[in-house]
Amino acid sequence: MPNFKAHYELACQLAREAGKLALQYWDKLEVAVTKEAQDIATNADLAIEDLLVKEIKKVYPEHNFLTEEHNSLDQKSDYTWVVDPIDGTKNYFRKIPIFCVAIALRYHGEEVLGVVFNPATNEFFGSYQGGGAYLNEQKLEVSSENSLDKAFLYVELPNSTKAPEIYAKMNASLQKLQPSCYKIRSLGSAELALAYVASGAFDAYVDLSLTTKDWDWAAGAALVREAEGVYRELAGGIRLGGNKKLLQAIEEILT
Ligand code: LIP
């Protein structure tokens, strides 16, 4: 397995530059693209993604890219950069400081590096395989809570334009989960939520939306795994992150 430290250092430097740009754009935001009825990209999303991809390409011109906006590129490389310039755009657009720049690297399909940076709070989460997971200078480990009835859960909910079958499944899962745990929260940034699972702030992540894309979770999955946790997908498409025992309890409730 190669060493990913140099890739990680590049990702950290670029995430900081991207974060600076996100704050600079905050006073001159415009909706640049309306994707589906409730899905937007701002001028900042586009500019930040362009910056990240351009700078990574300078160092790794042969790598693949999987990005939220318009820079995906398959060059049949073993390496794929997964980039969400701003995860939580709807929060960002409304000046709610719960959003992040998210950069992940996959090697042969496995997430080996994850950086999640919220420039509004200066929380910088980073990890690469074998290097530990950190929030700023603090080393991270997922929560050791394994009783579901005491667990503080992040639940990812779908956008409101999705198919009714998705609501039916989500409602059925919520009806089982809510009375079984301590408390449920949803913040509007899956990447940031997974970073908070890596830090132990949330005991587990439960994605009931069935609609998150790779760039919504790849960096967070790397962080959770490097913080001694597990990130995985259940057969029906629900995605979970947290410690192994708690995830087992959640899986039992949901299946
Ligand atoms: C969001 C996703 C995010 C998820 C939110 C929402 P936005 O879209 O990117 O990962 O947690 O619920 O769907 O706000 O970035 O357009």
Quaternary status of these chains? single chain
Side by side, the strands of the main sheet go 3-4-5-6-7-8-9
State the end-to-end CA separation. 35 Å
Total DSSP helices: 7
Which value, in Å, is the CA radius of gyration?
Answer: 17 Å
Number of strands: 14
> Which structural class fits the helix and strand makeup?
alpha+beta
User: What is the average per-residue confidence, as pLDDT, rounded to a whole number?
Assistant: 95
Small ligands present: L-MYO-inositol-1-phosphate
* Percent range of helical residues: 25-40%
Strand fraction equals 25-35%
SSE succession: HEEHEEHEEEEEEHEHEHEEH
Regions with pLDDT < 50 over 5+ consecutive residues? none
Largest sheet: 7 strands, mixed
Shape: globular
Overview of this protein structure:
- The chain is of the alpha+beta class and 255 residues long.
- It contains 7 helices and 14 strands.
- It has helices spanning 5-25, 43-59, 89-93, 164-177, 190-198, 214-226, 244-254, and strands at residues 31-34, 40-42, 64-67, 79-87, 100-107, 110-118, 123-128, 133-135, 138-139, 152-156, 183-185, 204-207, 230-233, 239-242.
- α5 (190-198) runs parallel beside α6.
- The longest helix has 21 residues, at 5-25.
- The protein is globular.
- The protein binds L-MYO-inositol-1-phosphate.
- L-MYO-inositol-1-phosphate is lined by residues 39, 87-90, 156, 159, 188-190, 212, 216.
